[in-house]
């Protein structure tokens, strides 16, 4: 892997991880179009560690409060009645689906799921679903009204992102809007829910990154740092954007990209595998 590819893919990861447009899908597309190969699911997983570090830094106060409340609640019955304690459990329980399914379907995720025809299809289909969620979701429930049932459902929504093109944030935001959550609430919970899953995935696949002729440790560190710095800026922008704007711009982008990719595949401009 060249240094140019490392820098480009680090930028792509940082720019797309938190937007509902699929970072893994974009990494696969950019690599296929400009570098002629697939960087692999392991590379994607490890670069996501950088963007999740950005989440931890940005939401440090909220995360620290959730962790502290969870530990206090283990021994204090009064704390267990708080929304913060329930929220911490929602993140923990909501992480289970993607963890279990990620292990069970590891081989498929790293092979057939990275076919560009599948990615093009999921970009379009889940773009349409995101648009429908924006149009018909009531968007009346703040983050404080999130229930354990919501957390479990959103956990399964996050698990759909194991297929490149779906989008981790896109899946959880779509389902969150259908559940009646406010747009900003759905976005914030999608960030929190991703932290344990992404770190576990990145650490689990780290040995695979350096197998064969993959990137060097120095290249991987640079990619993670670039993704984290750019991702931090994207978090700040997205949270402000969704407070006053719809997600239709992302819907249009997903559909346009998916259709363009289908056209490129059809004429043989890029290989599906």
From TrEMBL:
EC class name: hydrolase
Any single Gene Ontology cellular-component annotation: plasma membrane
Keyword Transmembrane: yes
Spans traversing the lipid bilayer: 87-104, 116-133, 186-206, 218-239, 251-272
Membrane topology qualifier: Multi-pass membrane protein
The entry's keywords: Antibiotic resistance, Cell membrane, Cell shape, Cell wall biogenesis/degradation, Hydrolase, Membrane, Peptidoglycan synthesis, Transmembrane, Transmembrane helix
A single GO molecular function term of this UniProt record: undecaprenyl-diphosphatase activity
Cellular compartment(s): Cell membrane
Catalytic activity: di-trans,octa-cis-undecaprenyl diphosphate + H2O = di-trans,octa-cis-undecaprenyl phosphate + phosphate + H(+)
One GO BP: regulation of cell shape
UniProt-listed Enzyme Commission number(s): 3.6.1.27
Major localization listed first in the record, in broad terms: membrane
Pfam family, one: BacA
NCBIfam families xref list: PRK00281.2-1 (NF001392), undec_PP_bacA (TIGR00753)
Note: Bacitracin is thought to be involved in the inhibition of peptidoglycan synthesis by sequestering undecaprenyl diphosphate, thereby reducing the pool of lipid carrier available.
Purpose of the protein: Catalyzes the dephosphorylation of undecaprenyl diphosphate (UPP). Confers resistance to bacitracin.
Similarity field: Belongs to the UppP family.
Protein name: Undecaprenyl-diphosphatase
Organism of provenance: Pseudonocardia halophobica
